[in-house]
Amino acid sequence: MSSCSVCRGLDPTDAELFEFYEGGLYYYGDFAPFLQSAAGCQSCSFLLSGLLHFFSQSELENDSTKSHRSQLSIRGGKKSLEIGVQGDFQPDWQIFELYVLPGSKDVPWKALKSRPHWHDIHHSARSHLPAWLDQCITTHAKCCQGLPGQLPTRVIDVGNVDGGFQQRLYVTKGEVERYICLSHCWGGSQPVCTTSSNIEEYQKSMAWHSLPKTFQEAIELARFLNVRYLWIDSLCIVQDDLKDWERESAAMASVYGRSYLTISAAAAADCSHGLYCFQNSRPIGPYPLKVSTVDGEEVNAYITAIPEHRAFEAHGGVHSGPQFPLLRRAWCFQEHILSPRVIQFGPHEIVWECKETLQCPCERIWHDYSRKSRFEKLLRTSIDKSRDVVETKRSLSEWTLGIVPIYSSMLLTHPSDRLVALSGVARVLKPFYKSDYLAGLWNIDLLDGLCWRVDPQFELPQARPKQYIAPSWSWAAVNCHVNWQAHTGFDRDIQAEVVHAHCKLKTADPFGAVSDGSLTVRGALIRRLWAYKDISGRRQYYVMGIGSEQRFDADFRIEADLPGTLGPETKQDCFLLRLVTSAATRKLKELRPQTSSINFRALVLTKRGSDFERIGYLDAIFDEDITDWFEGIDKSTITIV
Prior knowledge:
Blueprint: E1 25-29, H1 31-38, H2 42-51, H3 57-63, E2 71-76, E3 81-87, E4 90-100, H4 121-139, E5 149-150, E6 154-157, E7 168-171, E8 176-177, E9 179-183, H5 199-204, H6 213-224, E10 229-232, H7 233-236, H8 242-249, H9 252-257, E11 261-264, E12 287-292, E13 298-305, H10 316-319, H11 330-338, E14 341-345, E15 350-354, E16 358-359, H12 371-383, H13 389-408, H14 423-433, E17 437-438, E18 441-442, H15 446-449, E19 453-454, E20 482-483, E21 492-494, E22 496-505, E23 514-535, E24 538-545, E25 548-554, E26 572-582, H16 583-591, E27 599-608, E28 611-621, E29 635-640
Parallel strand pairs: 9-10, 9-11, 11-14
Antiparallel strand pairs: 1-2, 2-3, 3-4, 4-13, 5-8, 6-7, 6-10, 12-13, 14-15, 15-16, 17-18, 19-20, 21-26, 22-23, 23-24, 23-26, 23-29, 24-25, 25-28, 26-27, 27-28
Helix pairs in contact: 1-2, 12-13
């Protein structure tokens, strides 16, 4: 065993190293011992020289005194040696890998393995993508269904790999051919668009110099893959023709669902940056490190930071940040999960995703946590005709616990697209749910669907949107991240009944925008007062009862909707409509009739003429003081708009 208690000489033959970690765990602990050891240990000094490419000596030394924050790990990987760090200077755990190139002479540490560079995105796309595509098409049963698909209404004819003729807009005739889709951010830089004034010109040719960089590189990649047709939204939809936009946006499920491949310009904030874009991202290497071989010669080892992968996981929209602007966009959500195959161009590497695999050149990504795998599991559960009641409820709850919370966290340039940008996903699920779709909710699961709330981790919308998007009982009515609280579907007693629900469609798309909607419900309704308080810089809303109050989740800053200025703790009328009570409450009362504890969920409403309007959601948990609020209350039939 090495005399260094920190790195153990980076000797993978030490059996103790493999007790807790398959690749060998050399060290896990505070920074201070590592920094002290680096002054006299050649191996630790080598590792420190690598970290100094990313952090300053003072950052590491200052943080080493905060043992509760700073952590370091040294471990063996499949193809490299790994260092993990976390501290005030690096809040999220970051893994670095060290390696030598194949063919390098022997270095003094057996843990330092050889592997090629994987960081050249352009080279990775050309080297990995054809193999990934071939594997998917030839061996994946889930992915090859329906190939090739019917071409969309219009596509870009990119010609052939030799550039035999100039690219042009092609109006299709029902042909069944392979085509590629491009998913990209429009951003502040308006992309070149097809309009009623240039569509005839574009059908003859599109000048190369007039196309933005992202479009050019997508065309080049399509030619490289020998795929003749490319679909780009801004070019294949007539942007100044509202009827064409409505018709084509309603076809998104089939456009992306039938595609051979979707190219995702994930790192580009607009179409001027290209696929191979490094903006808003710190360098990750590789950086060379001089190492003496066993023969005394100097060779290069390399250190690189493992890229961020959370953006590609199921809740990627929340974690994508400025490195992946496209993955924060709401339109991208359905483009991604509806496409059978996606190649994501990140700032440092490409990521491949299909219905069966999730892969990247660094091999540090897991399929089970991806957005597409989650959606595929939902579809498989929905399609299974032998599913029981529990499985059906689980499938339906995935809409409220999975799809909508992720989607609602994403950004839209036009709030009016809130329902439209999810219509393709709803269209795909409709045959399996066998239910009417009502402004983002399913009629078969409507009572549970009403129990949404604005995520308390996010700031409330300043006011209800001035433009009508959806009825107040729909999550789409607020431009904010919403969620539902998980339940099994059988842990509560239903206390309300949906009598009638209806939405008036704005277009011919039954899953798109609505212009009106109403919900008639029968349940216990009580009148109360609400007010707000500012506590520790956050505005909180309360429903008041006799001698008690209960905090509720407001849908927006309710006071902004009222005339005049409403001060804190100024009481206003509201109503509570009870939807469900906890089955645990009923069971507790059966065991202990004297108990007055209760758990119920209710909508917070205000009057709007003869109807009601939702302003919030109340989840009251085992509060004895509010039990009598609904005691002896007869059910009423009301309409919520």
